[in-house]
Specification:
Blueprint (H helix, E strand, L loop, with lengths): L1 E6 L6 H8 L55 E7 L6 E7 L3 E3 L13 E5 L7 E4 L1 E3 L2 E2 L8 E3 L2 E7 L7 E8 L4 E2 L3 E4 L12 E6 L5 H12 L4 E4 L19 H4 L11 H14 L4 E3 L16 H6 L14 E6 L2 E6 L13 H7 L1
Parallel strand pairs: 1-14, 14-15, 15-16
Antiparallel strand pairs: 2-3, 3-10, 4-9, 5-6, 5-11, 7-10, 8-9, 11-12, 11-13, 17-18
The chain binds fe (ii) ion.
The site of fe (ii) ion (FE2) has 8 residues, from loops.
Organism: Citrus sinensis (Sweet orange)
Protein name: Purple acid phosphatase 15
Length: 356
């Protein structure tokens, strides 16, 4: 197994990096002998600093075709694949309809668009079907002059009964409108067990949506990972005001705002930008400080919890802030930094024991 560690660092996320200090960063697998953590620790493989890299991250603007809406009506967009607990199950996520932002927004009704996936091992014979659930979320700021946001309809559907190490084709949407996506594909991971491992896992944090992100994602894609772990700090929508004005340093530029604002369309831009990779390769996300995104009613992490599918229920977790899953012989335990893991939090110790 080979892990590619990539980080377009901006701020925060210290806790998450700590996790990886405990992990072997470079484990070479051969057919004859798969090293275990007991054979380590291994020297991490690094590359010298490339002076030609851009030192200053420039955000991808809303005019760039990489982030523009490419569908019409209720056609699916922002497709992504996430793992469930084992190799035999996968989550498909997508968005239909347009977000609204402004003073007078009216949330879409999630019940008006079905959450339906056709899938199978042949592109021309998608002979399995699955249905799921959908939701919209709001990001509300009860202050004069700040703009509120309501999302498109976010769909999550879990496919089951999948074979390990297999290529599956899928198409999602609502056939009754009709509004179905093109046919996409993903590969299931090896069977969960001590003798089978994914070949390559990409781990990234502080991804953002800058022209440096394009380098990171291109590098990642060219290495054909079996799985992507995104360990916090996703879109950096919280470096923007609700009117779409951004800054590298929110507190420096916008110190007088009544609440730490965000510009939620950045999430939609990010979903469009990432689709090419994560419609094929499963992505597993855990939250960072940039996902806090406080809003009215003391709500936090709403975009994060709404936009991604997490195998929380499947792994016995009560929260999108911690969950676990298998990737071949690896059992991943994702522990976000924004929940208490003792009796003071809303997670009891007994729940943690069951979950592990
Ligand atoms: Fe960070």
């Amino acid at each position: 197994m080979e892990m590619a560690f990539s980080n377009s660092y901006r701020m925060g996320g210290i806790f998450l990096f700590f996790i990886f200090l405990l992990s072997p960063l470079d484990i070479r697998a051969t057919n004859a002998n798969i090293p275990s953590t007991l054979d380590g620790p291994f020297e991490p493989e690094t590359v010298p600093y490339d002076a030609s890299l851009r030192g200053n991250a420039v955000d991808i603007p809303d005019t760039d075709p990489l982030v523009r809406r490419r569908v019409t009506g209720f056609e699916p967009e922002q497709l992504s694949v996430s793992l469930s607990f084992n190799h035999d199950s996968i989550w498909i996520t997508w968005i239909t309809g347009e977000f609204q932002i402004g003073d007078n927004i009216k949330p879409l009704d999630p019940k008006t668009v079905a959450s339906f996936v056709r899938y199978g091992t042949s592109r021309t014979n998608l002979n399995h079907e699955a249905t799921g659930h959908s939701l919209v979320y709001d990001q509300l700021y009860p202050f004069e002059g700040l703009q509120n946001y309501t999302s498109g309809i976010i769909h999550h559907v879990r496919l089951t009964g999948l074979e390990p190490n297999n290529k599956y084709y899928y198409q999602c949407g609502d056939p009754s409108i009709p509004a179905m996506s093109d046919v996409y594909y993903f590969r299931t991971l090896p069977a969960s067990g001590p003798q089978s491992y994914p070949k390559r896992i990409a781990i990234v944090g502080d991804l953002g949506l800058t022209y440096n992100t394009t380098c990171t994602i291109n590098h990642m894609s060219s290495n054909e990972p079996d799985l992507v772990l995104l360990v916090g700090d996703v879109t950096y929508a919280n470096l923007y005001l609700t009117n779409g004005t951004g800054s590298d340093c929110y507190s420096c530029s916008f110190s007088k705002t009544p609440i730490h604002e965000t510009y939620q369309p950045r999430w939609d831009y990010w979903g469009r930008f990432m689709e090419n990779l994560v419609s094929k390769v499963p992505i597993m996300v855990v939250e960072g400080n940039h996902e806090i995104e406080a809003q009215a009613g003391n709500q936090t992490f709403v975009a994060y919890s709404s936009r991604f599918a997490f195998p929380s229920e499947e792994s016995g977790s009560l929260s999108s802030f911690y969950y676990s899953f298998n990737a071949g012989g690896i059992h991943f335990i994702m522990l976000g930094a924004y929940i208490s893991y003792d009796k003071s939090g809303n997670v009891t110790f007994s729940v943690i024991l069951i979950f592990l």
